[in-house]
């Protein structure tokens, strides 16, 4: 059996030792990392199912899983790819994302184009994601991955805030993100610029898809990062005021928008200072749609309809309780 | 050939004034051979939310059945219908769960939310939501659909004008795509009624 011959990364152990470990959910990394074909069991769902090797997982009922990824369809998708069909391309955010630290806090900026291959799928998407009231995160890479990872860490941060009773720190968000990304070894393709102001001061970090991080006074990521970095390297200085900082960030994003094909449309900016944040959605719109004809289209030849079926919808009835509430 | 070009599809949804329209083609093929001309791509989740799935037909049907199941459970628990934004998040989560072995389809979701405000969104095959204020497209004819909708769309159209616009955009785009066509299926939903129409198109 292939499973037994696989090198699990440390020493060669017997299969059952690893099943024991897996059932404790200690090493999700190993199970995915070294197997050519991810196994047919969901993890980290109930451990009893791990021992059913021959059977398809969750054969009958699609109950909401406990979380994590499910690899059910991998074998079928691989079979289709071997038959000559190309794998699907995902929505990427080609992107220019930047962050810089100014006198009173952090400014984050992003463009707003989402691409699917060479086609622009979304002309005005939001790339600056909310993590905590004092922490925001810009995301580049596969759009589903950046959204899912930032949503997940944002929920974890909120639970942590409830538990500790304190405001979240940027370093907490950083550690949670890098732990998750490293455990998927770069397959969760999310490159992030994380910035915020907490009790220890303003912080700005970059996180790469494989899980490495940098702490910087100014940072750029995405396909337009070189264009934006050239603006920063030329004009950044310490102790910028809020307006100077916003102007510099807008200039860096514009340079990405105009020079990089994967970035485009408008500029979003988020300014975070101690106790206050400002999300300037579509701060600048350097690419307005000017060619629209005011008359619009008028179709003289109507489309031919074969059949029409009209379903009237029920009136939505509002039930208001009149009278006194029941008493004991 | 890409997996999405195995069966062929074209789906578009547009927003109007307190109404929305969702349209799809009707062809089901196996690469270049047509095997059905009345394939149902648009499905009703409840009276005010519709979902249209483009891509591999088997995943279209499986995913639809899973989503109806989840919505029925929600209805039993909450004793009400799901809002379109909530439904979109549900679909996104179900698709992202299969991140490394995805369902090979791209959904387009359209619905009437609170105060009869229309809501449309599309996703790629792993659940990256793309909310739009005007129109969303999906399928093998998506590139032509983008062009046609950009040109023909106007904001705040009434139901009849919206129907005409979406039909013209769909038919002109599928005419330029070999893998989709054979007529069109359009639903126009206003707060008081659902109008379902079958369009006559080129049968080639």
Automatic annotation (TrEMBL), chain A:
The active site is at residue 95. The keyword Acyltransferase does not apply. InterPro entries: Ntn_hydrolases_N, Pept_T1A_subB, Proteasome_bsu_CS, Proteasome_sua/b, Proteasome_suB-type. It catalyses: Cleavage of peptide bonds with very broad specificity. One of its GO terms (biological process) is proteolysis involved in protein catabolic process. Its main location: nucleus. One of its GO terms (molecular function) is threonine-type endopeptidase activity. The proteasome is a multicatalytic proteinase complex which is characterized by its ability to cleave peptides with Arg, Phe, Tyr, Leu, and Glu adjacent to the leaving group at neutral or slightly basic pH. The proteasome has an ATP-dependent proteolytic activity. It holds the Pfam family Proteasome. The keyword Protein transport does not apply. This is proteasome endopeptidase complex. One of its GO terms (cellular component) is nucleus. CDD domains: proteasome_beta_type_7. It is found in: Nucleus. PANTHER family: METALLOPROTEASE TLDD, PROTEASOME SUBUNIT BETA TYPE-7. Component of the 20S core complex of the 26S proteasome. The 26S proteasome is composed of a core protease (CP), known as the 20S proteasome, capped at one or both ends by the 19S regulatory particle (RP/PA700). The 20S proteasome core is composed of 28 subunits that are arranged in four stacked rings, resulting in a barrel-shaped structure. The two end rings are each formed by seven alpha subunits, and the two central rings are each formed by seven beta subunits. The catalytic chamber with the active sites is on the inside of the barrel. Its EC number is 3.4.25.1. SUPFAM superfamilies: N-terminal nucleophile aminohydrolases (Ntn hydrolases). Keywords: Cytoplasm, Hydrolase, Nucleus, Protease, Proteasome, Threonine protease.
From TrEMBL, chain B:
It is found in: Cytoplasm; Nucleus. The keyword Transferase does not apply. Keywords: Cytoplasm, Nucleus, Proteasome. It comes from the Eukaryota. One of its GO terms (cellular component) is proteasome core complex, beta-subunit complex. Its main location: cytoplasm. Pfam families: Proteasome. One of its GO terms (biological process) is proteasome-mediated ubiquitin-dependent protein catabolic process. The keyword Cell wall biogenesis/degradation does not apply. InterPro entries: Ntn_hydrolases_N, Proteasome_beta_3, Proteasome_bsu_CS, Proteasome_sua/b, Proteasome_suB-type. Component of the 20S core complex of the 26S proteasome. The 26S proteasome is composed of a core protease (CP), known as the 20S proteasome, capped at one or both ends by the 19S regulatory particle (RP/PA700). The 20S proteasome core is composed of 28 subunits that are arranged in four stacked rings, resulting in a barrel-shaped structure. The two end rings are each formed by seven alpha subunits, and the two central rings are each formed by seven beta subunits. The catalytic chamber with the active sites is on the inside of the barrel. Component of the proteasome complex. Belongs to the peptidase T1B family. Component of the proteasome, a multicatalytic proteinase complex which is characterized by its ability to cleave peptides with Arg, Phe, Tyr, Leu, and Glu adjacent to the leaving group at neutral or slightly basic pH. The proteasome has an ATP-dependent proteolytic activity. Non-catalytic component of the proteasome, a multicatalytic proteinase complex which is characterized by its ability to cleave peptides with Arg, Phe, Tyr, Leu, and Glu adjacent to the leaving group at neutral or slightly basic pH. The proteasome has an ATP-dependent proteolytic activity. This is Proteasome subunit beta.
